[in-house]
Specification:
With 179 residues, the chain is mainly alpha-helical. Helices cover 51% and strands 4% of the residues.
Amino acid sequence: MHKWDVQQRIRDFEERIPAIFSEDLKEYMVEGGFFTCPASAGHHGAFEGGNFWHSRMVAMLLREYTDRLGLEWERPESPEIIGWLHDLCKMDEYILVRDGKPHYEHRRDTGIPGHGTKSAVMALSRMYLTDEEIRCICWHMGAFTGKDLWGGYTEAVKKYPNILWTHQADMVASNVNGI
């Protein structure tokens, strides 16, 4: 399955996303390399299309948690919106280096720190997000955002508990399933 070409990934994405995704956002994702970029430079999903597979799995896990646990969201499409967009910034985070064995390296000149915040900003410029969706995307790394931000993280979770499920889905996808 990970060998799907870009067109197969795009078709799968279009079949799975809620109708609420704007055409502008979809075009931005295609043109920006969302369907070809890795999920990381050397860890989970460090291959062409890795971020597509990772985001797909996070969206699927959030939907599963919602259905099984009765999670409530500000709008019903939120699990898919958050899952697909939580790492939107990855299409601007890595460069393919072809000297010797081809590999990905992390860019340092992307302009917006914090990949959760950057992903939310990128999405917000092309689609309306609820406050809950913004917080889930911004805080999807959980306590891995850094000790200096734990107070803000704790307050965000108190207001939007689904941040915890977003973090769980991200961790299961990346660290349990390796994607």
